[in-house]
Amino acid sequence: MSRSLLALLVAVAAQDPDASVHPRKFGAPGGIGVTRGWYVWHAYHPETGRADVSNESSGEKVTVRVLPWMTTYRHLVYGAHPDDLLPGERVNLFFNPDGALKRAYLVHYQDEIGQMKGHNHAWQVDEVSPGGRGFTARVMHGDKEFDPKPGTFELDPACRIWRDGKKVEDPALAKGGRLYLTWCAEKERRVVKLLADGASLDAIQAESRKKVQERIERDGMGAFVEGVEEGKGRLLIFSTYWAQAGALKAGQTLRLQVGDDAVEVRIVSRKNLGAYGSGPNEIVLDDVTPAKAEILQRWIGGKVVRVFVRE
Q1: Could you say which architecture CATH assigns to the domain 120-213?
Q2: Assuming Cys at both sites, which of 23, 108, 129, 152 could form a disulfide with 94, CB separation 3.0 to 4.6 Å?
Q3: Range(s) of the chain covered by CATH 2.40.50.320
Q4: Integer Cα distance of 133 and 279 in angstroms
Q5: Tell me: the pLDDT tens digits for 82-124?
Q6: β-strands 61-74, 50-55: how paired?
């Protein structure tokens, strides 16, 4: 069986309502995933919907199936895209199995900054290298040492440096400083691509939220058409976009698109299906004419529909 055919069969299975990874099972971002751990991200292949990763501890390499509706949390914002991750970036990955394959589906990821901020962790500088572009540091939990094993880092020449909520040129590394990092494994080196103090996290979050919103305006939200009858339709917007879908209101017009085919419909109601408003959103639509219904019917059964807000 060819790899492309296998990928297609897997995608159909994942979209089955009874599948463990169907979008309706995603009650909250990060709320699904039988196994998880720290991995090194190597590459994402959008043409096959797969990613190459390796376990940080064992070095075991795995090729996983990236679900179009997986949830993400990067730079303190939900809704990032696999393309946003850097080759070699350290990421906490969540997996679901498929039969005997333990890590078959990638269902959620969150980056080191989000993970550390959420657990009150930070890197504390032990020593600064001559020249001020490298350092050793260890992970702290509040004022207590969390991991006694230090890490050695060097700043990438193009490292983005944040201090006191602003982008700066001088890293001003100092012993005892608390830092948040985006870093990549480059052979035996840990190369820092983004360095920030705690006072800059809100600014990083705002920048990332803007980037996510721009992508959604360009590419739309992902959804399934689940039913069409009597001039109405039912749409399930994936929990990846819970924050944006949560802003939808009755009476707004949506453009639904698959390839070159598109229809415009009106929102009747929205119902969130997850915990604390963070799961998928079920949208009831009207203004579904017979011509529109014919198109929507063709999309039922697992086609990923792009959803754009028209007004």
Answers
A1: Beta Barrel (2.40)
A2: 108
A3: 3-114, 120-213
A4: 42
A5: 999 999 999 999 999 998 899 999 999 999 999 999 999 999 9
A6: antiparallel
* β pairing state of 221-229 and 305-309: antiparallel
Reported pTM: 0.91
Question: What single-letter DSSP state applies at residue 260?
Answer: T
Cα 108 to Cα 88: distance, rounded to the nearest angstrom: 18
Give the right CATH number for 3-114 from 3.40.1080.10, 3.20.20.140, 2.40.50.320, 3.40.190.10: 2.40.50.320
Q: State how far the Cα of 127 lies from the Cα of 280, in Å rounded to an integer.
A: 46
Architecture of 220-309 per CATH? Beta Barrel (2.40)
- pLDDT at residue number 63: 96
Residue 8: the pLDDT is: 41
Q: Which residues, given as ranges, of the chain have pLDDT below 50?
A: 1-12
